[in-house]
Amino acid sequence: MARVRNLARALALSAALTAGPLAAQEGDPVARGGYLVRAGGCLACHSDLESDGPPFAGGGPIETPFGIFHAPNITPDPIHGIGGWSEGDLAAALTQGTAPDGGHYYPVFPYTTYTRITDPDIADLWAYLQSLPSVARPRRAHVLKFPFSIRSINLAWKVMFFEPQRFAPDPERTAQWNRGAYLVEALGHCGECHTPRNPLGGLSRDMAQAGTRFGPDGKSVPNITPDSETGIGDWSLGDIAWLLKTGFTPEGDDVQGRMSEVVEHGTSHLTGEDRTAIAVYLKSLSPIYNPVRPNDDDDSDTGGDDW
Ligand code: HEC
Ligand code: HEC
To answer: Rounded distance, CA 118 to CA 126, Å?
Structure first.
């Protein structure tokens, strides 16, 4: 019986993972949650895709200046996953960065962004995660440098850099703009890579989306504010939406590295309306002059392990 149930779940999962774009508001909670995990980039971090690991059963190494993190197994396995959790536990993890035992998460889990996810979306994410087949794949420990290896250090970090927030639509703006703002600022965690950080890993909000030379893996991340010289001021709405769909820039280059994962496992699965909404929001940001890539084609930049 359990095997039949697991098989049914596995089929539902593969259907959900391979289904084409699905309007965000349609379908049952599991289907809506399946859309949200794409928009939120959960799959790419929580699955070891390079080694063909099962979806959501734990991710590959994430290298940072503080050490190497492994995103845990978030399938419903009672021992290795989050089988013993409630929906409230998921809400606390995503919006407060707090574990069921009261421990504090490392901000490499982007709860600094997910804190803005709405309650109905958390309910749908929960329904989707619950529907996954349980995978008994042990967690891989983080390999961190002292003092970052002490989990309670995250409490100090949160006091300095984290403020729980809810997404508040701006009534002066259109529904399309607000949808774009939500996708970028709450789910899409674009700023987790495109916004520079201070030496302790806090996001520099006044430079939001203005790019950084020291992004994940020590690589630079481009400025995506509409600055015409150093950002994407020359890109049309269609150019941005096209990149999010296909991974191609207006010049016909394909995006590399982490952004290719964002497109492959995330934005290419969104509806055209949602990609356009993201573009509308990005184009509305204040342009910030920030030359991140002097030669702009500098893919050989391997700036060591500092961001
Ligand atoms: C950038 C990579 C990344 C992304 C994107 C990401 N996570 Fe995580 N997540 C992590 C890491 C790393 C941890 C472990 C943090 C720690 O140990 O303090 C984690 C922890 C968690 C936990 C706690 C699990 C436990 O056993 O305590 C949950 C639940 C979770 N993530 C769900 C999600 C969901 C849902 C999404 C998408 C909305 C998501 N994550 C997106 C990296 C990520
Ligand atoms: C995990 C890190 C990461 C996340 C999350 C991320 N990006 Fe990127 N993005 C990058 C990197 C790295 C590049 C540069 C890719 C390259 O060199 O080809 C990039 C490139 C881009 C470009 C092309 C800019 C140019 O000048 O070529 C756009 C547009 C873009 N990202 C938009 C977004 C949006 C919108 C989101 C959120 C939905 C997002 N990115 C989320 C890392 C990320």
So the answer is: 12
